[in-house]
UniProtKB/TrEMBL annotation:
Native organism taxonomy: Bacteria, Bacillati, Actinomycetota, Actinomycetes, Kitasatosporales
EC number(s) recorded for this UniProt protein: 4.2.1.41
Native organism: Streptomyces sparsogenes DSM 40356
Keyword Ribosomal protein: no
Family the entry assigns: Belongs to the DapA family.
InterPro entries reported for this sequence: Aldolase_TIM, DapA-like, Dehydro-deoxyglucarate_dehyd
Enzyme class: lyase
Gene Ontology BP annotations: D-glucarate catabolic process
Protein name as annotated: Probable 5-dehydro-4-deoxyglucarate dehydratase
NCBIfam families: PRK03620.1
HAMAP family: KDGDH (MF_00694)
Amino acid sequence: MTSASLAERLDGLLFFPVTAYGPDGALDLDTYRAHVRGGIEAGAAAVFACCGTGEFHALTPEEFRAVVAAAVEEAAGRVPVVAGAGYGTALAIRYARLAEEAGADGLLAMPPYLVVASQEGLLRHYTALAGATDLDVIVYQRDNVVLTPPTVVELAKVPGIIGLKDGLGDLDLLQRIVSAVRAEDPEGKFLYFNGLPTAELTGLAYRGIGVLLYSSAVFCFAPEIALAFHKALTTGDDAMCNALLDGFYRPLVELRNQGRGYAVSLVKAGVRLRGLDVGEVRPPLSEPSPAHLKELAELIERGLALVPTSEA
């Protein structure tokens, strides 16, 4: 096992695998292992198990532990494994401890369930979570969690909280957060992640404020495309970025926006289209329509055709 910290190891394209189910709807851990193994072999820098794309909301605690353990075993120390943790404080701590038992390297702290909390309440929640586990914690800002710059400054001081994943998309707010944290600790190593669905679409904008880490749902079903975009983004090949944005990512987002829950179900359908039967999404999510599946298949082929031959 490496002695490097989680923050030091999160450098590259981040893989958020889907959770595989069999025809009866139960976990299919063998297929899940194959999915995780394929992602690592394709070049993922980390595995984020049982997060949004992995249907955290749909898993029992026992299933959660089994899936995280399977990811850890497949990773075998080659890349870090980060697990989701969410709901209220007590349950978030329970999931954190299950992830720790399963061998995870860190946590992605999902938004608390249902409530719209004050800044003080959110600070208490994430501080309690970080204090209850030895795992490093990344706080996920989205939906009912909108953090002010002063709150993130305080979170950055909490031992064990190493970063902020932004799923809100308010770049003005994020820039002010980055600036406030940097002013407080100019030498700090606090991490920032682009956590929007289909993060590549906003990759150039986030790069403008220094945020290069992001979660790639496309990597689940088209690692060739995701890796080509990541290379272009990090090397400054904006022409390739724009070619992939225009020919693949923008149409994909327009398709994604045609259905509720497509940020997950469309990704899972893409994995099946590429030959790995990971099953359907669990309720309350639903499957894409046949017409949308056909459009997705055509988009994947179009995207693959845009990848330079040397990288395909």
